[in-house]
Design a protein that fits this description.
This protein is mainly α. The chain has 13 helices and no strands.
Length: 268
């Protein structure tokens, strides 16, 4: 198994630090920024994501939505629930409440009736009404385009904000859900103890040309191939590159483009 790949610089002598403290600070910052927490070389990482790009040239999220507001609501509802379950509940909901004002007009009680099949639906209904009210009161009914503003919304955490920034506003973000957290640690691409740690490391180790779609590639890989209970290594296009201790297959699956995603009918 390959050792962890790191880029580092030699520490300057103490005497030099005392003479040039400003230069020493620059060296310390560069050293910190240069650390790469992964067992894969840059060439291996580029090949991993090149293959994902061939397999799914235009990956998409599997939550149905019609605009940034319905996306915020769908992602907030998806916590501890499947995309399929959320889609079933929101299809009718978004036909009558696809803006913050319409959601407020619907009201919390009627909203609960639409989403009662989703786990924690009572608390989620309160959050959706509260975030709708905040959007109307503080953002003129528009979904904000910055992470700091998004996480102020009730029921919206960093993961939800990252999904919205990526899918609604085209920003390269890394929303670490259960699939990405598992994949990053299982294959040792960017191991970390917390979602925030994994997010920070993935943003560093994923080659920049592939960063925008990487979030969806990793989610879909975890959902359909590198599954939680048993990874289906025989169906994996990176089986030869994978350095997971759980790996059971070394021959990569044929690298072919998969059929287009059918949103709303995904199998969890």
């Amino acid at each position: 198994m390959a050792a962890e790949y790191r880029v580092s610089m030699a520490n300057p002598k103490l005497k030099s630090v005392s003479k040039t403290p400003q230069g020493a600070n620059v060296i310390a910052r560069r050293k910190k920024a240069a650390a790469v927490h992964t067992v894969y070389s840059l060439a291996e990482r580029e090949e991993i994501f090149r293959r994902f790009s061939v397999q799914r040239p235009e990956p998409r999220g599997e939550l149905e939505h019609t605009n940034p507001f319905t996306l915020v609501v769908a992602v907030a509802l998806s916590a501890q629930a499947t995309d399929v379950g959320v889609n079933k509940a929101t299809r009718a909901l978004f036909q009558i409440a696809d803006t913050p004002k319409k959601m407020l007009d619907l009201g919390e009680e009627r909203l609960r009736d639409y989403i009662r099949t989703i786990g924690l639906y009572r608390n989620k209904a309160k959050n959706v009404i509260a975030l709708s009210q905040m959007l109307v009161d503080q953002f003129a009914g528009e979904v904000p385009k910055t992470r700091d503003e998004l996480v102020r919304l009730p029921g919206v955490g960093r993961k939800t904000a990252n999904v919205v920034l990526s899918m609604a506003f085209g920003q390269a973000t890394m929303a670490v859900d259960t699939h990405i957290f598992r994949i990053a640690n299982r294959i040792r691409l960017a191991p970390g103890k917390t979602p925030d740690e994994v997010e920070a490391r993935l943003m560093k180790v994923i080659p920049k040309p592939y960063l925008y779609h990487a979030h969806h590639w990793l989610i879909l890989h975890g959902r359909y191939t590198c599954k939680a209970r048993r990874p289906e290594c025989e169906r994996c296009v990176i089986a030869d590159l994978c350095k997971s201790p759980e790996k059971s297959w070394d021959v990569p699956a044929p690298l072919v483009e998969l059929p287009p995603q059918v949103i709303g009918e995904a199998v969890e």
